[in-house]
Fold each of these.
Amino acid sequence: MSYITTYTGKHFDPTAPDASLFDVRDIAHALSLTCRGNGHVKTFFSVGQHCINCALEAELRGFPTRVVLACLLHDASEAYMSDVPRPFKHALPSYVEAEEKLLEMIYEKFLGSSLSEEEQKLVKIIDDDLLYYDLKVLLGETPAGEAPNLKIELDYTVQPFEKVEAQYLKLYERLSQ
């Protein structure tokens, strides 16, 4: 079999992606069930929750709606490819290339075009700022550097996946109008 069957029943081949098969319901569902840190955390915290936090933080910082939506979608490729921890990912150039291609296609489908360099930088800033707190809270590590000042109040309470999925979809709906 050269495809995965998505939550909505689509047959999707991550090695030969077809953008017409991307569905935000599949993304929200899969990310709400995918644990941050490859599961090596003190308590379950989903990639979906992380993406929601990124989008809400970007919104409160006054970033353009397009960037806020990009923050919500920045890990959407993981719904189709799974997550690979950053240190290992850097040793897998073909994986990184496939992931970048998939994410580019996702941005084109849901944002109408790929991100500009400036938009990519803004998404990375938000992702890295939230990663700081994810490492601190979920792993008990003290990341290097100063703690970023966040506009949102983080909540690492374990949430039912259905709640995270619904929140992701509601936020997507609001931002994409």
Amino acid sequence: MQFPRMKEIREEAGLKQKDIAEIMNVTKGSYSMWECGTDTIPLRRLNQFCNYFDVSIDYVVGFNNKKKYSNAKPDIKIKITGENLKKIRTKKGLTQVAIADALNINQPTWNRYENSKSLILTVVLVELAKKYHYSIDKILGKDKD
């Protein structure tokens, strides 16, 4: 899953991939694969990238052109994320099986996300946000706007 704005943001800051890799305490190879889309960046690492550059996750993934939210929180709140996932599902009138099927995951996995037992994977979160038109930052409890 490629997020072209990662490269744009890094280059605007005048940094090389190796610089960001050092900042994020990962190998240059890992960062390079995330930036070029051959591997999906883990959600906590995406959050780390966004916090470093003071940009919203929604902006980095290309959901909008708003670089940051006025009351953005730096941390992902797993409990709030789970609660928000449940709210989305119930608002859409879906069962756990139905939403899991729509996202190509299994119901026990969705249950773990919804009950805050596991942090949702980046690829699943992006698909959910696209499919149902939600802000990733709001789902994660990073934005209240």
Amino acid sequence: MRGFPDKCVIDTNVLVVADLFSNSEKNNEISKCCIEACYKVIRHVMENGGLVIDENGEIFKEYRDQYKKSHLDKGQPGPASEFIKWVMKWQWQWQPNQVTRVKIHRLNDTYKEFPEHDELEKDFDFDNSDRKFVAVANAYPGTHKPPIFQATDVKWWGWKEPLCDVGIKVRFLCPDYVKEKYPKKKSKPKT
């Protein structure tokens, strides 16, 4: 895949959308281009490595829970299941060129490694399941923080600028979908 980073963080919704690759008749809303982009990202990582997850296993657990859910919902494993099995392989778990594990520290409802930025702090939609991906990208020890691949979670569109301010790039695999849905999400009152 052209322009693919050496290291990356992959949000679980990328796996969910990639699973539509083999079962697109279940989808009415997400474009074929978006589904293919998600599929290509997970295929690239499986073939070349570069996944960044947390040492504590929170991202791994979320992937595994999605794996269990996809088996229960469909009965037939799809591309996401194949990716999750790849992540679960013992030989990849401890090879930094395949899977890099980064230490993050839970701090109440967030993480010590979650970046400080006014726009991120006042956004109450930033739940823990999203925060761990940001904390992992921010805690990465290399000279460049790995980008976070994002599919259809529209909340991330509002976070892209503040995250960029702290050196974390969000790569949207379904930008047309997110751009269209974000204004509607933003205009809904928070409960």
Amino acid sequence: MELEFKPVEADDIKIIAPFFGLRPNKTCDSVWLDSYIWRDFYHVQYAVSDGKALQFLMKKNGRYHSAMPMCREEDLPFYFNQMVEYFNEVLKQPFAIYLADEEAVRQLNLDPNRFEVWEEEDLKDYLYDASALKSLSGKKLHKKKNHLNGFLREYEGRYEYRTLCCSDRDDVWKFLDRWWENKVEAEEFKAQLDSEITGIHEILKNCSQLDVKMAGVYIDGVLQAFTIGSYNALEKMAIIHIEKANIEFKGLYQFINQQFLINAFPEDMVLVNREDDLGMEGLRKAKMSYNPIGFARKFGVRQKDFKV
């Protein structure tokens, strides 16, 4: 089995990026940036197979798992089976996927005698109508529009929306230090939040190579909110990977959310993916309050017929 895996580094983005967006996939994993942000948390490694597919090898709780291959839709069954063989013959363990996108699971229609498949309910991504989030029009988003208008009135002449670049990294680091000091979360989520902060730092250190979309809002000359996103051209979908704001400024979240979508993404964008809620009740309420139109569901896959 000739698959040579290596850790994902900033220099590798030009190699792996072309494999994303080759088949339908509405999850946040449908773009390369998510793999980079969480590369340390999941010990992400990749291999290019036949020049046609991107394969992943990751580790969680001491056990290897994979992801659905990034390849053309018609090639998915072949490269899925390639990874099953790699796990069985090279790693000597049953094949497993931690987060498989719904489109791939449906297409593969896996034999229930060979594979167990279950939905990871807490890890589904929230999907929104792009035009609704840009305009905040309609009864269901009325409160969001009020918060936005309140921010515009309260801080008129004091705020500035700005596209961020590498030279702004110090401002973001200082913001993150302040944000982390005031963050109170359950211990079970601390590892994810720590890894998210690590991923952000890696993006900022290598942003000139990564070509990511970043923006911030300055109030009285101080960065008080920032966001990082990607674009899935096949699905015409923005993915909001990171969005953080100082909650002392009411309406700031609504402002940066709206302005980022208006300024950073194509006008013909139809969907916005704001990722999952990790099972955190506060995040769930916040994401539901924006009136999602659907979800990008994710599934676990575990091989049942492996024999040593």
